[in-house]
Structure formats: C-alpha cells, structure tokens
Amino acid sequence: MNKNFSTLPLRSGVGIVVLNKENKVFVARRIDNPKNFWQMPQGGVDDGEDFLKAAFRELKEETSIKSVELIRELDGTTTYELPNRLLGIIWKGKYRGQKQKWFLMRFIGNDNEININTKNPEFLDWKWIELDLITELVVDFKHHVYKEVKEKVKKLIN
C-alpha cells in the first residue's frame, strides 16, 4: 500500500520553553527514541482547548510541573513535518507533522516537583541546559523549530 501522506493535515500543537532561575532550559529524553535526543515539553491541542490551556496541560502531563509563570507567548507558529520513516506511524498515521504555538514560562518551584514518571510516561530522563544547547540535542526534523524558538527566546531574556 502506497499511501499519499502529503494530503494528511498538520496536527495543532504547543511547545513550552521552561526556564529555571538561572535561565537554563528544561529538556527531557524521550522513551521512544533510543538515540540521545532531548526535547522541550510539547504536545497536541485537544478539541475545544485553547493553546495556553494545552501548554499548561501538556507540561503537567509530561513533567508534573505546575509551578510556572507565563512570561509570554512567542510570536507566530512553527511547523515541522515527519520524516518518511515515521509517516503513518506517529499519531496513528492521522497527521504528517505539527504546527506549533510556543510559550515561554518561568519555573518557580523546586526541582523535586519535577516527576517524569507520570501516568503515561514519555521521558526517560530530564535536565537543565543552556539555551544555546537546545539545537544540538534535538532530533533532526525539529532542528529548524528549535533554532527559531531559541532566537525568539534569546531576544526576550537578554
């Protein structure tokens, strides 16, 4: 079966840049990716849900983090498309990629609040890293998204 994936829609999603007091960024390593790729919290928007509510929900579902303050919504959206090897596999084959709205948030809790062993765990490990490193650790098909997000965040925190 040779399915034409180019006709599939993009999934509506959110991403969250979580900064700690030292302006380091929260990243986590996915369970379903055996290589050493790390990502920031991100996920889909449910029907009838606004982007900001989705961002808070995804953050809590993936990391247990609740103690955050919104710094700001980043301008515009970013889009990525899945590589051919993942088309038809990720999201049960319903989408070809994601169009994301990103948010910048400040973590105001203690690290012991962070728990990636959630009801439906997505991550094996987590850490705080320098903003400049996010593009070095991300999976190739999201590199341009992280580069764009990094530039937008740099302008806001410098």
Task: Give keywords.
158 residues, alpha+beta, Nucleoside Triphosphate Pyrophosphohydrolase, five-stranded mixed beta sheet, three-stranded antiparallel beta sheet, 3 helices, 8 strands, 31% strand, globular
Helix/strand/pairing class, anyone?
alpha+beta
Question: Which stretches of 5+ consecutive residues score pLDDT under 50?
Answer: none
- Our Rg estimate from Cα atoms comes to 15 Å
Give average pLDDT, whole number.
Answer: 93
How are helices and strands ordered from N to C? EEEEHEEEEHH
> Roughly how many Å apart are the termini?
51 Å
Major sheet characteristics: 5 strands, mixed
CATH superfamily annotation:
Nucleoside Triphosphate Pyrophosphohydrolase
Secondary structure: helix percent: 10-25%
Number of helices: 3
CATH class: Alpha Beta
Number of domains: 1
CATH topology: Nucleoside Triphosphate Pyrophosphohydrolase
Oligomeric state of the chains in view: single chain
CATH architecture: Alpha-Beta Complex
Portion of residues in beta strands equals: 25-35%
> Which overall shape is indicated by the principal axes computed on the Cα atoms?
globular
Number of strands: 8
